[in-house]
Specification:
The protein has 320 residues and is an alpha/beta fold. The chain has one domain (46-286): Phosphoenolpyruvate-binding domains (TIM Barrel). The protein is built from ten helices and ten strands. Helix 4 packs across helix 5 (119-130), helix 7 (184-192) runs parallel beside helix 8 (215-224) and helix 9 (244-255) crosses helix 10. Residues 1-39 form the signal peptide. Keywords: Signal.
Length: 320
C-alpha cells in the first residue's frame, strides 16, 4: 500500500491542487460577467449634420427594445384604456411648480402618461417621474409630441420615453417612436403590412366629438379590428359643454382605441390637476357621466370644478 501511495507523487500533487485551480477558473469567469451585469450604459446623444436637430442614439439595441416595450405596456392595458394628460404651458412654470404638477398627475390624477410639446419641460418631467421609481404608483411615461426643428432642444427630447413622428417620415431617432397617422388610408396600410407599432390617430381619423353615430365610427372600428397587435391612441378635447369629452372618450374605447390623451388638460393653472383627476375618474366609470357629483373643487366658492344641477362641470379656465 505504501508503495502504491508513493508510486506517483506528481499525480497526487496535481489532484490535491485541482480544487484550487477550478476555483480560480470559476472566479475568472464570474468577475467579468457580474461586472457587465451591473454596468449600465447611459443614453448618448449623437448629433449628425444634415438632419434637423441631429440623432438620439441609444448605446444598446436591447435597451431600446426594452424601452419600447415599457411604452407599449404603459399605453395598452389588458382591460380598458390608459388615459394620459397633455401639458401645454401657457405660462412659464418654475422648476418647483413643474415638479409638483408632475407628481400630482401621477399620484392624485393617476395619469398613465404625460404628453408635452414643450421640449424644455421634458427633462424636468422625466427627472421627477424617475424619482418615484420603486414607489407606488411608479413613474409615468413622458412623451414628446412637439416639432423637431433646428432650434429644438434635442438633448432634452432624448430624455423622453418616446417621441411622436408623422407616419412615413424619415426616422433618425434611435429611440421609441409613436407614429402620427393622419388618414384612415394610412391606418389601413399599416394593417395590411406588419399591423404592429404605436400609433397616434389625428382628428381626421376620428368621428367628431358629439357626433359619435356618424359613419366615421364604423369605418374606424373596421380598421381597428384589423390591428389587434397595435397600440392606438386618440386625443380628447377637454372641458366640453355637457361633459361631451367623457362620452366621446368612452365611445372611442368601445371602437377599439387603446389609449386616450386629455388634450391641453394642463396649461399651468389651478385647474390642471382638478380637471385631469375628474376626467380620468369619469372615463373609468361604467355609469353615465350625467348627474355624477364629485368632491373636487377648483375654487373656494365652489362655483368651478363641481357639477351643476344638470351634471355639467363648470371650469374657471373657460371663463377667462
Amino acid at each position: 500500500m505504501r508503495e502504491l501511495q508513493n508510486s506517483n507523487p506528481r499525480r497526487l500533487a496535481s489532484f490535491r491542487s485541482l480544487p484550487g485551480v477550478l476555483l480560480m477558473l470559476l472566479v475568472m469567469l464570474l468577475v467579468p460577467l457580474t461586472s457587465n451585469a451591473f454596468a449600465t450604459e447611459p443614453r448618448r446623444l449623437v448629433r449628425t449634420g444634415g438632419t434637423p436637430g441631429g440623432t438620439c442614439a441609444l448605446s444598446s439595441t436591447l435597451l431600446q427594445s426594452t424601452e419600447t416595450e415599457n411604452v407599449k405596456a404603459a399605453l395598452k392595458r389588458p382591460r380598458g384604456a390608459s388615459i394620459g394628460a397633455e401639458f401645454t404651458p401657457s405660462t412659464d412654470l418654475s422648476d418647483g411648480d413643474l415638479s409638483v404638477l408632475s407628481m400630482q398627475l401621477r399620484k392624485a390624477a393617476k395619469s398613465s402618461a404625460i404628453w408635452t410639446s414643450d421640449a424644455g419641460s421634458v427633462a424636468k418631467l422625466v427627472e421627477e417621474q424617475e424619482s418615484s421609481r420603486g414607489d407606488f404608483p411608479g413613474p409615468c411615461v413622458v412623451i414628446y409630441n412637439g416639432s423637431l426643428e433646428e432650434n429644438t432642444d434635442i438633448e432634452s427630447v432624448c430624455d423622453a420615453s418616446a417621441v411622436v413622428l408623422d407616419y412615413g417620415a424619415e426616422n433618425t431617432l434611435n429611440m421609441p417612436i409613436i407614429w402620427r397617422v393622419n388618414t384612415l388610408e394610412h391606418l389601413r396600410e399599416i394593417a395590411d403590412e406588419s399591423g404592429e407599432g404605436v400609433f397616434l390617430l389625428s382628428e381626421d381619423c376620428l368621428p367628431e366629438c358629439g357626433d359619435e353615430s356618424s359613419g366615421a365610427s364604423s369605418d374606424l372600428r373596421e380598421v381597428l379590428d384589423n390591428l389587434p397587435n397595435a397600440v392606438t391612441i386618440a386625443s380628447l378635447p377637454v372641458m366640453q359643454a355637457a361633459n361631451a369629452e367623457i362620452q366621446f372618450g368612452k365611445h372611442l374605447v368601445g371602437l377599439g382605441i387603446n389609449s386616450l390623451i386629455l388634450q391641453n388638460a394642463c396649461v399651468g393653472d389651478e385647474e390642471d390637476v382638478t380637471y385631469t383627476q375628474w376626467a380620468i375618474e369619469m372615463l373609468n366609470k361604467k355609469a353615465s357621466s350625467s348627474f355624477s357629483m364629485t368632491g373636487l373643487t377648483g375654487s373656494a366658492n365652489g362655483h368651478f370644478g363641481v357639477a351643476s344641477h344638470s351634471g355639467e362641470m363648470k371650469w374657471r379656465r373657460l371663463q377667462q
